[in-house]
Amino acid sequence: MLSDHKTYKVLKKDPTRCTERRLNAQLLKLKKDEKIFESLYLQLRSSDGVSPRFYGLPKIHKPGYPLRPIVFFIDSRTYNTSKHIAKILSPLVGNTDYTVRNSKEFCASLEQVKLEQDVELVSFDVVSLFTSIPVEHAVQVAESKLSQDETLQSRSAIPITDIVYLLKFCLSSTNFKYNNIHYQQIFGCAMGSPVSRCYGYIVMENLEQKAIFTSLTVFLQNNLMR
């Protein structure tokens, strides 16, 4: 996987200390501008953060047991900030009309559905979801969701522009270590960051809503033309 030069590149040195200084400088600026309290600043500030580690989880349900790339972010310099951003974004996930919480809820929703003979059930899967999402796109979708969220101020006093900056910083800080060699993920987002689940769902829900809206529009246009 690491030989894929479109996704990963080898670094000459560990950028952890530099990333830590940049993050702490931004957090200090937020504190001085009175956008975050001292307690939150100390909570998010990184001190002696370690370089994330890379490993693979085998997909035992698929032929050949391909590996799912995981970046272990615990104790890394962006871990606490990623957790806080994930807490801010979490209420934005799962609010669409097409979301089910689990397979049990999905089965229950189908109990009363009667399918005609000419109807087929189709499922779609995303290949390598996290490494397939461009960071810029993920940030744009999240910013759009945040700007429409009327409850945001009740759970965070940080302005949207600063939330978006921290989100982009965390998603872009994707260097890691494997076999004592440092790498940088240059495309997509890393799976393993606390904020990964949130932005993955947000982007997929946005894509899903666009696809369904387009399908409904085409369906109505075709029927109106008859």
Q: Can you put this structure into words, describing what you see?
A:
With 226 residues, the chain is mostly helical. It has one domain (8-97, 127-224). Helices cover 47% and strands 11% of the residues. It contains nine helices and five strands. The strands form two sheets. A three-stranded antiparallel beta sheet has the order 1-5-4, with no helix packed on it. It has a two-stranded antiparallel sheet with strand order 2-3. Helix 6 (135-147) packs antiparallel against helix 8 (160-172) and helix 6 packs across helix 9 (196-224).
List the helices and strands and how they pair.
Elements (H helix, E strand, L loop, with lengths): L7 E3 L5 H17 L5 H7 L8 E6 L8 E6 L6 H11 L13 H8 L18 H4 L2 H13 L4 H4 L4 H13 L2 E4 L2 E5 L10 H29 L2
Antiparallel strand pairs: 1-5, 2-3, 4-5
Helix and strand run:
EHHEEHHHHHHEEH
* Cα Rg: 21 Å
What does the main sheet amount to? 3 strands, antiparallel
> How many structural domains are formed by the residues?
1
Question: What oligomerization state is this entry in?
Answer: single chain
Give keywords.
single chain, 226 residues, mainly alpha, three-stranded antiparallel β-sheet, two-stranded antiparallel sheet, 9 helices, 11% strand
Q: What is shown here, in short?
A:
By secondary structure, the protein is mainly alpha-helical. Helices cover 47% and strands 11% of the residues.
